[in-house]
Amino acid sequence: ERLTDEIEAAAGAVLKEVEAAGGAVTAIEKGVPQRWIAESAYRTEREIARGIQPKVGVNVYADEADADPSTPALFQLDEGTAERQIARTAKRVALRDERSHAAAIAALDAVAREGGNVMPPLLVAARAGATVGEMSGVFRSAFGEFREPNPW
Fold first, then answer.
1. What is the structure's pLDDT at 150?
2. pTM for the predicted model, two decimal places
3. What angle do CA 99, 100, 103 make, to 5 degrees?
């Protein structure tokens, strides 16, 4: 019961802060939740660095071989990955039926602007060979693009 009461009190404090900021939308526009997340992440990383909060493989149960700074395990990038993906996408775009692709993109745009269920036309567009970038462009055009406010 005590833990439930603590959670309830913390949730109530959050709701009061959101209310004081002018509501959820205004709070988001002011960057309030973003600030909370950033502050929480900062506190967590400080606690991990100090050993207060355990993180497996970092400050507890860390393998001694991993701790040797002379042999860091670095990610090795395959230089050809980007070129292969570009070629695959270009081939897919070249093989698609442009008429069905254009119709599918137009239908997706119309439904998005009307506020309807975009999932069915999204599937049609994908099956017609639309790329994720093209479908995302439709959404950016219809809905705009969110710019996260600076929380400080």
1. 73
2. 0.58
3. 85
